Amino acid sequence: MSEIDGTEFSVGDPQAVYDEIRAETERVLIGNDEAIEYLTIALLSRGHLLLEGVPGVAKTTIANLLARASGLEYQRIQMTPDILPADITGTHVFREPTGEFELQRGPVFANLVVADEINRATPKTQSALLEAMQERSVTIEGETLALPEPFMVVATQNPIEMEGVFELPEAQRDRFMFKHTVDLPERDEEAELLDRFDAEPTLGPDEIGQAVTPESIQSARRTIADVYVADPIKEYILDLVAASRDHTHTDHGVSPRGTLAFQNGAKARAAIRGRDYAIPDDIKALTKPILAHRLVLNTEAELGDVRATDVVEELVDTVAVPDMDIANLQTTP
């Protein structure tokens, strides 16, 4: 256990970390359980997350809630067409009193960076995040600086905006471990939203407290690294990846980075459910958030109004799931 201001926090238990983050965020968040799950898996797997949804479905709020519940330093970047790469990474500023240039670090130097409406920024500015997301470092005027750990990028985008936006290039999309669509709430969830905000009109992220510590997140990451992935599970991942590359409706399938996302995500998903081994259901549950945004569809698919999610569903239905003895996995080192 670790302690902050008299409050004890679990250390090293991924399931406890997830349960505590979920319980705290649910004080404000209604529904969107999948979003918190994917955010936690990405955080514990050193991944990044792209949240997509129409305006008003709490995309930015979800990221803010995670930051507050996890005790991470949080920075939000409002992406606009006029924002420059240096506005994200930082630059050297001349200080007249000293007559010297001083490094002014940009908002990317935080544990959790929210790139709000990322597709409003130009491709040049979007590319400022490429090095940070992969190498976890930033190069400013020839000097390479390490970013803090944990480090995670959560980006949001609005799928219905057609003007003044720039579609994310494949290299940028591939750096997001998951893409999750935040849907409109069900009627009962929206009714609860009305009641909750009728009782507490100022309810928001400021109302929740820290549920875990950065130390517990780092410890949970080390625990997740030891989760067992059996050879049939790895073969299942490779079969899905190969099928995405050979599909008749794709020009380009999943990259090796996506292959690793399957393995790392399955480990984290197993761990937050209290298992030290992955099962086929862990892979199946992650196919859509891992695959859909990485697929590059061909002209035939576009003419036939075939969506990436349609291809993913077909892959899940057609790729054979390994027949495994789960009881044996529980005793495998």
Automatic annotation (TrEMBL):
Organism: Natronococcus pandeyae
Top-level taxonomic group: Archaea
Name this polypeptide is given: Magnesium chelatase
Domain AAA+ ATPase stretches: 45-186
Cross-referenced InterPro entries: AAA+_ATPase (IPR003593), ATPase_AAA-3 (IPR011703), CbbQ/NirQ/NorQ/GpvN (IPR050764), ChlI/MoxR_AAA_lid (IPR041628), P-loop_NTPase (IPR027417)
Keyword ATP-binding on entry: yes
PANTHER family reported in the protein's UniProt record: MAGNESIUM-CHELATASE SUBUNIT CHLD (PTHR42759:SF1), MOXR FAMILY PROTEIN (PTHR42759)
Residues in the signal sequence: none
GO MF annotation terms: ATP binding; ATP hydrolysis activity
Keywords, comma-separated and alphabetical: ATP-binding, Nucleotide-binding
